[in-house]
Specification:
Elements: E1 6-11, E2 15-21, E3 28-32, H1 38-46, E4 50-55, H2 61-64, H3 67-73, E5 78-80, E6 91-93, E7 99-102, E8 105-111, E9 120-124, E10 129-133, E11 136-137, E12 140-141, H4 149-160, E13 167-170, H5 175-185, H6 190-204, E14 212-213, H7 214-220, H8 229-239, H9 246-258
Parallel strand pairs: 3-4, 4-5, 5-6, 10-13
Antiparallel strand pairs: 1-2, 2-3, 7-8, 8-9, 9-10, 11-12, 13-14
Helix pairs in contact: 5-6, 8-9
Length: about 260
Amino acid sequence: MSNPRIHPVPALTDNYIWAYRIADTSTDVLLVDPGEAESIMNYCSDHGLVPRAILVTHNHLDHVGGIMEIQNHVQIPVYGPARTARFCSHFISLEDTQDFMIEGCRIRVIRVPGHTLDHLAYHIEKDQILFCGDTLFSSGCGYLFEGTYEQMYASLKRLASLPDETLCCCTHEYTLANLDFALTVEPDNPHLHEKLALSRALRSNQKPTLPTTLANEHLTNPFLRCHIPEVRRAAERHEGRSLDHPVEVFASLRKWKNRF
């Protein structure tokens, strides 16, 4: 499932910079997490698109490394967590913002601590598009650099509560590796086998596996399935003990994935 107004532009090793066209008839785009400038600026030039703003989910270099160079070409504002300010010249902090408007487009800010403490996600309700940074991945979730397991689990639950048709625009091409782990947890899950076949076909043709949908993630993402008995039992077998709460299951899965 996709939307013609969003496009993942490959960057660096396995990143995607997202370009979101604000309206069907518009050439104005929002850029999300530009870890480098060249690839996204070339994409905009080739497609006649005009960047109007940059959204940043968190301040890791592979998400902000291209901002200054982009701003050298086009003087556009950057929206994001306060720690992003040092990477750009025209910055608008979203620390205390619930939603905001850009070029008539309303964007909801969702706080999702875990990968970093100030990580943000952006939900565009009119198109049911979610820019989730390194919090939610296709069949996976982000590494915890700063937050706790409880925080990350709550953040994923927050995102998982959005409508099933939500398009999740993750920022790394991790799907195949994540599916390998997910199948270790749930080897008999038919949805995982179906997704693996589709994802392999896409990658063999150098096509992105993203965006994914929340509906699919509910079926194929072990980190959103901590309440499912099969997932809990797999985590318990790995731990060698009982796990009484989904947060414990999540922590077990995340530590397991770290060493996978």
